Amino acid sequence: MLKKIILCLLTPLLMGGCVSGKEAAMQKIQSLKDAYADYFLIGNIVSGVDMDDLRYNILTTHHNIATAENAMKPQYLQGTKGVFTFYDADAIVNKALSRGLNVHGHTLAWHQQSPAWMNYEGVSREEAVINLTTHAKTVAAHFKGRVVSWDVLNEAIADNPSNTEDWKANLRQSPWFKAVGADYVEIVFKAAREADPDAKLYYNDYNLDNPNKASVVYNMVKDINERNPDVVGRPLIDGVGMQGHYSSHTSPANVENSLQRFISLGVEVSITELDVQCGEEGKQTDAQKVAQGITYAALFNVFKKYAENIGRVTMWGLDDGSSWRRQACPTMFNDNLHPKPAFFAALDPDKFITENGASIEKKEAKQAEAVYGTPDLADAAAWSQAPAISIDSYLMAWQGASGTAKVLWDESNLYVLVNVNNAEMNKANQNTYEQDSVEIFIDENNGKTPYYEKDDAQYRVNFDNEATFNPQSAAEGFESRTTVSGRSYTVSLKIPFRTIDVKRGGIIGFDVQINGASSRGARQSVAVWNDLSGGSYQDTSGLGILKLTKR
Ligand code: G3I
Question: What count of other Cβ atoms lies within 10 Å of the Cβ of residue 243?
């Protein structure tokens, strides 16, 4: 019923009918695609829910290219071997074309939403290659002439790459990789080019604002294109898709650096899945709406700067209510399909920043003191001289496990004692960050970089004293100990200094995070000392400051 009323109210307005008052004001909203007509295409996703007139009119008013959110993924097109089911995808593609939109294809190969028969464990390489090429060729041929471009391969690179020079060593251990080997990348691109030589062929991935991951993708595309400079008239890979699943803590400077790198390869770049998280439980405060707008504005300013090499900017979700991250309100339209500040920020970034930039206060990093001393990890009393740091600022709505930390240091190591309360003591989840655990982030040169430098590291220890490291090399010389008592546990850690000489003390970037698991084994709460961005595993700019003093 409510939906019907909203529909009655909004339909005339969005279709350009005769309306008054507030609606008339909305009618004047400029079209996003028109604002960017001289820059790049503006896109959004389409799924079954978008096929009604109200949503479709917003789509066509503000966008000129569409991506099927799910319908063109392998699982939906060939769930059963040899049985291609194009009905839903055709409906989406044909409607988009009939309403004047271009269509981008997503995706021919991915480790998710793909049927197991394609690349099951134990399949021969020969059979897997046939499955891969048959799928890619049949699908690309089916949509030939109707799509302008394809995400040929999605998310093939692992997170937190180590040696970025060797792209093959950083391929995700996906079913395709395991079944075929590293050359599956070239194989699927060649199949797509053969079937539809006119479509632009993209490699698409997330976290490409991370310079390490961007380097791996850069090296992969460079290598493949240098070895395949003329596949039906041009290099094999036409473009790099930076997905752009960001948050209001994302650094636009990082995005710009990666854009520049990819452009230097001579390929087209597109922003393929843009959204900006800034909210909890499906709600946003006014301050969050503005902060989100500032990020959209800063990003669109970067995109405008490189417009000559950018094909399209596609948003991943028409409105918050239908977004895959609806809890974090990441899109430009609210649940009632009204444009949010983020929309106006994208429409006119400079105006938005001028009008709102000053209202964003820069948060000062918290400071704490580490006292000189060399403790026995088993003796919590050894930390008694060190001041307690409260780990009780929550990143998520749920306020679960929290605690205090104390820090000692000597010439070789940092010694951290963390007391955690209110924990469920659950380590069922295979993602170690979803287990009841403590994380320590160290930025030895306090460089506050939006990516990890050599002096940066993350240490995670669960209540059962199982440790994980980022990078793995940070494990050298590390020691830890845990004790559990009811719903409380204590972790003591010895963390060697890796790149700095601290004889006279000094200042380092530092943070502590407590992951609280639910009794069902999913992370339900995250408490930190300073960095509320949730990004301290890859970005040290939000860490607090630790002073190493001698009393
Ligand atoms: O089709 C089934 C349906 O039969 C079932 O009743 C229903 C119950 O949950 O699930 C339906 O499948 C869902 C599917 O979307 C279609 O709606 C899956 O559960 C759900 O997990 C799936 O999520 C999609 C996700 O990719 C899968 O990883 C999201 O909608 C889609 O937005 C998201 O998109 C990806 C991009 O393709 C690649 N980059 C990341 C991006 C966000 O995760």
Answer: 22
Amino acid at 303: F
pLDDT at 25: 41
Of the listed 151, 186, 273, 275, which one is catalytic?
273
Which tokens belong to 112? 């998710």
Give residue-wise pLDDT tens across range 496-542: 999 999 998 999 999 999 999 988 888 888 999 999 877 899 889 89
Closest CA to 44 of 113, 112, 115, 99: 99
Six-digit token string for 94: 């044909």
Interatomic CA distance for residues 280 and 295, integer angstroms: 17
Atom of ligand 1 nearest to the CA of 73: 37
Give me ligand 1 centre to Cα 203, in Å: 20
Atom in ligand 1 nearest the alpha carbon of residue 45:
32
How many Å lie between the centroid of ligand 1 and the Cα of residue 246? 18
- Please say whether the beta carbons of 542 and 364 come within 8 A: no
115 conformational bin, left if phi > 0, alpha if psi -120 to 50, beta if neither? beta
- Please confirm, yes or no, whether 205 is among the known catalytic residues: yes
Distance CA 451, CA 456 (A): 9
**C-alpha atoms less than 13 angstroms from C-alpha of 473 in its C-beta half-sphere:** 10
How many whole angstroms separate alpha carbon 376 and alpha carbon 372? 14
Question: Residues 158, 171: contact at Cβ < 8 Å?
Answer: yes
Minimal-distance CA residue to ligand 1 atom 15: 70
Please report where in the chains the tokens 């970037």 appear, as a residue.
509
> Is residue 256 annotated as part of the catalytic site, yes or no?
no
Which DSSP string do the residues of 221-267 spell out, in sequence order?
HHHHHHH-S-BTTB-S--EEEE--EEETT--HHHHHHHHHHHHTTT-
Give the span between the Cα atoms of 136 and 141, in whole angstroms.
8
- Structure-block tokens of residue 178: 């395991």
* Domains identified in the chain and CATH numbers: 31-60+279-361 (no CATH), 64-243 (3.20.20.80), 367-549 (2.60.40.1190)
Q: Quote the CA–CA distance of 334 and 284 in Å, as a whole number.
A: 10
The per-residue DSSP string of 262-316 comes to HHTTT-EEEEEEEEEE--BTTB--HHHHHHHHHHHHHHHHHHHHTGGGEEEEEES
Split at pLDDT 50, 70, 90, the class of 6 is very low
Residue 229 C-beta-side C-alpha neighbours within 13 Å: 3
Which DSSP letter does residue 473 get? G
Q: Does position 18 have pLDDT exceeding 60, yes or no? A: no
How many Cβ atoms sit within 10 Å of the Cβ of residue 173?
8
- Residue 128, phi-psi category: left (phi > 0), alpha (psi -120 to 50), beta (remainder): alpha
